[in-house]
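Pasting as-is:
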Amino acid sequence: MAHCTFMDDFLRLSARTARFTYGAPRAFAFGDDGRLLWFLRSSGPADPHDSLWLLDTATGAEVLLADPRTLAPAPGPLPVAERRLRERIRLTAAGIGSYALSGDGRRAVFALYGRLFTVAYDPGAHGPGAHGPGTHGPGTHGPGTHGPGAHGPGALPAAARPAGAPVEVPAAGPAFDPRPNTDGSRIAYVADDALYTAPGGRISPDDGARWGVAEFAAAEELGRSRGHWWSPDGITLLAARVDEAALQRRHFADPAHPELPPEDFAYPEAGGPNADVQLWVLGPGGRRVRLDWDAERFPYVSEASWESSEEILLTVQDRLQRCVLLLGADPATGRTRELSRTTHPQWVDPMLPGTPARLPDGRTLTAADVPGGAARALAVDGRPLTGAGVQVRAFAGVHRGRLLIEAGLRDPAEQQVLLLDPDTGELTVLADDPRVPTVHSVLAFAGTLLLTAAGRGGVRRTVLTADGREFAPADHAAPLPWRVAPVLERVTEHRVPTALVLPRGHVPGQRLPVLVDGYGGPGFQDVSAEPRRWQHRQWWADQGFAVVTVDNRGTPYVSPAFTHAVYRGFSEVTLEDQVAALQALGARHRDLDLGRVAVRGWSYGGYLAALAVLRRPDVFHAAAAGAAPTDFRHYDTAYTERYLGLPQEHPEVYERDSLIPDAPKLTRPLLLMTGLADDNVHPSHTLRLSRALTDAGRPHQLLALPGVTHMTPGGAREKLMALELEFFRRELAR
């Protein structure tokens, strides 16, 4: 194998660029009837601080609207709610983490280290020739030009103010998740778990609950990261009330700083209580109306939105997620009515992004499985529009009278953008490349599209205006070091997707130890044509490994039936498919030395790695397991119970999938890793397994990392990779 220093050039570059993400534009949103494309981007590949930008398609100019280093030269700590939400949505960038637009899309609001800002853009003041690209560069406007108090306490600047320095708006406390109303005249935000408006003040009662936020289960597992929504008339708010009093508290202490007090937060453990979530309409004059549905039977709120000032749409689920209701609610009375019901004997897969939605003619878009679970379909009023050959992944809006969807037509590793006729079901391909595996995606508004193509050549983003002009938002990320072409194959009787990455310059006939590197769990697809995920696997290959990645049954985007195969049990199906796929690849590629097989992974991938050496030491010879949920009785409700049921009703399922009873069986080298600040897979999971191994007299290694979270930010992941490499070299050489 090639030699590697502790942190070689690639690992240092990866750490410095946050895995080649700094400088890349993200968080796109259209405004001003599609003329403006807003986004976040840092200045370059070594800059972690995202600024707020827009692309004006009338002029082709990119305009910098808010630079966090100008607004906050000495950054403060993030509010706890924002820090934890960034963990939930896996956001590593610093600076401006998110923003929200007013109804006309000409004004944005954002929080920066707890301070509240608004910034406007007047297209009339930035017409052709008014400003060239870069006119609003860093330092164009000094901080504080329109600072607090310039317009009176709590006042907002005039809606017609042209783009200039962001205006700081006085807030009642560290501001979190600010949202402007339709015309931008008011901002709703959360401070210290209470909901406020500016101008105005506190609008949520002081009742001990958290207001305007998403609870842990919603943000981590159900796809809902927000907890308040303005009505279309900009007068009334829909707000979540979250009571976590019944939940157990989980604690974190930093042993590297014993002088600091521990943190704690409410955690919904499998089989235990969930947060009590209510939805309230908060109107003028202190008017409060609670939305009324059977919350005891349907405790999960996975989606909420205003359809009009007279109707709210909300999606609720029963605890085991076998029944999902789309409800229409009257904001004046709180009464709800059932619009659609989706059921499944195992679990209903999460709603497609972009749904539920109403078409202009009033019909309702939802998701549905085709008969036999062969595909996920887009449905109109419950009638599937697509068949078994189309794996629909998202609804992106209406474009030229047809439905714009992201879907897979050929291989799960690829994705196309399609137009779908809502009446006939006729499909038209809008973005595809049948020559090279590529993941295409789209954002649409008022006839303007942002098309993204991610493949072997990198990532291309193209803005197509309604009148046929094209623009490309600048990407300042570091170029990917390697053009990786993984060998993508479907193997075994289940046609499991796999990928193989070999060392650059590999000479056929040279036998290679194998590294199984993957996730393997529900909700995440590893084998994808998206190019960034293969850079680190190429690095591993260049250290002398044949790197194998397997999307076993249970992972998404093959078919609902493929995903549902892990119902009432993770371990058996996951391990069976990993072993079968590995053996099938070994038969096809004779250079794979199946007598030297290592396995690594993080989160569910860490579970898979530890599972592999504990239960199949005949196949796997060394494992590095990071942040592994070693006993799902201690993982969260919404994820775990969806697949395994309630532990009180199915204790044998949880016992079978727990790694703790397997500890005495360990005969292979095992490296356990955990971040001591991980609030997703609490470090107690890894420590329980380590204790069981110690009690059984089974040697192993343990890396407990103070201050490191589940996302392993700040280069922690690269440092671990270097340590894993030395571990595998040593153990596979024996």
